[in-house]
Amino acid sequence: MRFPGSGSDVLKGCHVRWSWLLMLTAFLGLSGCGAINNMMYKTTGDVMVGFAEQHTVPYVLSSDDLGMNCAMSEAMTPLLMSFGQVTKNPDELGVMMDLSAGNCEEQKAWKYEFRYMKALRAQQPEEAQDAMIVEKRHYIVAAKRYYRAWKHLNARYGDVGDSSCPSFDNDQSEFIYMMGLLAGLEALNSEIQSTSDNTGVPQNIAAKVARASGCLDDDKWWGVPMALRATVWAMLPGSQPQGEDAFQRLAAADKKGEDARVRLADVLHAIAAWNQNKTAMVKDIIRRHAKDVSRVPPDPKWAMVDQLATLNLQAVSDRLWIEHTGHRTPIGGLGTFWDDKKPSSGEVIDLNSIM
Prior knowledge:
Number of strands: 0
Largest sheet: none
Shape: globular
Structural class: mainly alpha
Number of domains: 2
Order of helices and strands: HHHHHHHHHHH
Oligomer: single chain
Number of helices: 11
Strand content: under 5%
Low-confidence stretches: 1-14, 344-351
Radius of gyration: 28 Å
Distance between the termini: 114 Å
């Protein structure tokens, strides 16, 4: 017979109590490590995001290396945005990162669009169809990236275009707001190009962009806010206010961009003209842009924006050249076209004789 609490029962009870004590200690220790880790992650996230916003973004905007910008945005976006899980979500940074990544994907779509056009000229239907499929796949990805940038803008500033104008912390915040509006239009345009309806891009983005652009100073931002509105007027039938002329407004915006040496409005003007099949106007815009860029360097602070405008206009020029000649714009030939009148006089140099 055993009495409760005697002999081995006492030892067993001590063993149980010690086991629970060890488990509790281990649990508290792990919880402490988790708390410390979270604090470290938050601090790291705040430092990384703060550095990117205050230094990386301005540095990139002053560079004219678009390829390097693409590589950075596609590689670094997941890392930088993941810090939103341990600290405040970096939505302003997300606008810029996803806008840039969307443009990178759109450039890939251009490559296959041009391949499609060349295959048609060569009467290669299978090659043309394959190129068109890949082109549309890239446009689907581009639309989703641009739309993520738009959603970051709305997460930061509320219902953009449906509420009162926000207050901005500084000039960089205003610029990012404007780029978010551009991302909205790009998302819609990429979805249209993809002929897909599964990107999630709402059709009312254009109207919201037009309204929200009124929150920005047109003179301060190189005519782009007005160009955004006028582009929407040209794209959406019935949206142009009475007494307004979209293309007169776009021409005025171009002039502001030239004066500021940040010629982003030229792209919006060309898009609006292209959508209305105004080929002569498109060619004039490209000619004027190329001439101005060769004559006047960009504002060093915004070199990337100006270079991006040139890249987009070069893509439009390439479409025209491929359609009529089968090849892209010749090197150094931006602003010239296959049907330009050649000089009727002057010495002709045989390049083969000097090579």
